[in-house]
Amino acid sequence: MSTLNPVSAPAARPRLGLHVITWGCQMNAYDSARMADVLAPLGYAPAAAADGADMVILNTCHIREHATEKVFSELGRLRSLKEARARAGGRMVLAVAGCVAQAEGEEILRRAPYVDIVLGPQTYHRLPEMVARAARAGGAVIDTEFPPESKFDHLPEAASASPAGVSAFLSVQEGCDKFCSFCVVPYTRGAEVSRPAASILAEARRLVARGVREIVLLGQNVNAWHGEGVDGGVWGLARLIAALGEIPALTRIRYTTSHPSDMTDDLIAAHARVPALAPFLHLPVQSGSDRILAAMNRRHRAADYLRLIERLRAARGDLALSSDFIVGYPGESAADFAATLALIRATDFAQAFSFKYSPRPGTPAATAPNQVPEAEKAARLATLQEALGTQQRDFNAATIGRILPVLITGRGRHEGQIGGRSPYFQPVHLNGPAALIGREVDVVITAAGANSLAGRLHPAPEEFARA
Ligand code: 5AD
Ligand code: SF4
């Protein structure tokens, strides 16, 4: 009688459901996808819901208010699902990742002892090891170190079978050395680390081979990227973008988020020179008052920002700008706020994000004595958003009648509808065949709303089919 040789018979890998909940920035979205890649060899495949999943990861954000309380309330919900699964004879591994995990790891384990794994943004390449330890150990596993090895060197290639979409994020840089006095990022994400160009270019080529046509380079301070070049020298972001611009079929390149003081001459020139580099830039300014900019430790004045915008527009006339603003920073007077409104009027933003200042524990501004009352912050935010909203609507309305190249990224909400983005990052809806997904097509803009545009194919679909 022969017995099956257990060594030669490949063990059927159990299929385990992994549900990842992502809050916060695009970097977190990228990290969530990489955590799924790291866990795929262990048999984990995406599960649509936390209910019934074998593992749930809550990838958290710490940038603004109520971050920690929001985590505990979500953990309470997940705890019931975990208990229900245990009653049904299964097990749900519960992990908390991201910036709240980094900042409040011990507190999470104290208040939510049913959590199995707590990991920071720099250690997720060690997740398989943590899962194994969590299975063995009676208690929880915590890993919120800033390890000496870079996770970028230890990540597997993205699972090539999974669809990549038309637009993909690619993380090139992480962490921040700027220490703006309101911001937790330098504490939760650690010091600036740039990934080598060879590994970025290899990932970009793999993404393009899987159908990606737009790559968004991600970094907390992406324009501070200075990585090892493929020639062994140190490259800046402009050089990296030029190399990415050589990849055939990569239609569009974007990068986010940038700091004004790292906007180098060659990066400005790249906006004129690299055809694939989209004419859209997210460049946070935070405030238009020099006094507040100095208190924020932003390292530039309002006039420096305006001059920079002039130079960028000289390089690329149609460059659309986006920014971040904080109102009610400690000590912000009515005159400081007026200076921010003046900067907005002088610039004309296509899009912007604005926030009430929120004291973050451990940051210098949190303990400043002259905090602005909540009602004043709310009033200023409403005024600011009114001004920015008007600029955004005007920017959108100005595209009516124009023919814009739209990169089609997917189907629309209604039958026969498709959608994509203009070069200026505006969502565009139109009627057209799904076969156009992944292609850049000319679209006549026929209507504009506050947040998106509508248009029709140019030429019309029948002529398109003949073309
Ligand atoms: N309060 C309010 N907004 C903040 N941001 C960062 N930290 C804070 C804070 N403590 C905003 C900044 C930054 C964006 C990502 O979040 O505008 O550019
Ligand atoms: Fe935070 Fe950006 Fe300032 Fe860095 S540059 S500290 S990430 S706001």
Give a nutshell description of this structure.
The protein is of the alpha/beta class. It is built from 13 helices and 21 strands. Helix 2 (about 65-85) crosses helix 3 and helix 11 (about 335-345) runs parallel beside helix 12.
Distance between the termini: 68 Å
Which regions have little confidence, pLDDT < 50, spanning 5+ residues? 1-11
Strand pairing plus helix content: what structural class? Answer: alpha/beta
Please tally the β strands and state the result.
21
As a percent range, the share of helical residues equals: 25-40%
Q: Tell me which ligands are bound.
A: 5'-deoxyadenosine, iron/sulfur cluster
- Largest sheet composition: 6 strands, parallel
In terms of quaternary structure, the protein is: single chain
CATH topology of the largest domain: pyruvate-formate lyase- activating enzyme
Strand content: 15-25%
Task: Please tell me the total number of domains.
Answer: 3
Please tell me what the overall shape is: globular
Rounded Rg: 24 Å
CATH architectural group of the largest domain? Alpha-Beta Horseshoe
Strands of the widest sheet, in order across it, are 2-1-3-4-5-6
Average per-residue pLDDT, rounded, comes to: 91
